[in-house]
Amino acid sequence: MSGPVPWRETGGGVEVAVRLTPRGGAARVEGVADWDGQPVLKVRVAAPPVEGAANDALIAFLAKALAVPRSAVTLVAGDRARVKRLRIAGEGLADRLAGLAG
């Protein structure tokens, strides 16, 4: 993947910026985009943005897609915002995220 990426490696995992689209049909990654000068991973989920359902669906989807336990994915910032920051614990996640982002 060329250009800036929306994740950075941290001790024991990665932090990733995600632009979430709730009620977007089947859960999927739509690639990397620019959001106010910041690279973000665009993700759609079917869940509505009600009572944390979309956030829960995002966490479950990323955990499954990256083959990590759900408990390894933590919402760090953006609980009610469209752009969120997540921390994902595990090894080799930058490469797996690059594969998801296409």
Distance between the ends = 7 Å
Tell me roughly what share of residues is in helical segments. 10-25%
Mean pLDDT: 95
Secondary structural class: alpha+beta
Assembly context of the chains: single chain
H/E element order: EEEEHEEH
Proportion of residues in extended strands: 35-45%
Largest sheet: 6 strands, mixed
Number of continuous helical runs: 2
Descriptive notes:
With 102 residues, the protein is an alpha+beta fold. It is 23% helix and 39% strand. It is built from two helices and six strands. Strands 1, 2, 3, 4, 5 and 6 form a six-stranded mixed β-sheet that branches. 28% of the residues are buried. The model has no long low-confidence stretch (mean pLDDT 95).
Give a quick rundown of the structure.
Helix content is 23%, strand content 39%. By secondary structure, it is of the alpha+beta class.
How do the helices and strands line up, and which of them pair or pack?
Elements (H helix, E strand, L loop, with lengths): L6 E4 L2 E9 L6 E8 L2 E7 L8 H14 L6 E5 L5 E7 L3 H9 L1
Parallel strand pairs: 2-4
Antiparallel strand pairs: 1-2, 2-6, 3-4, 5-6
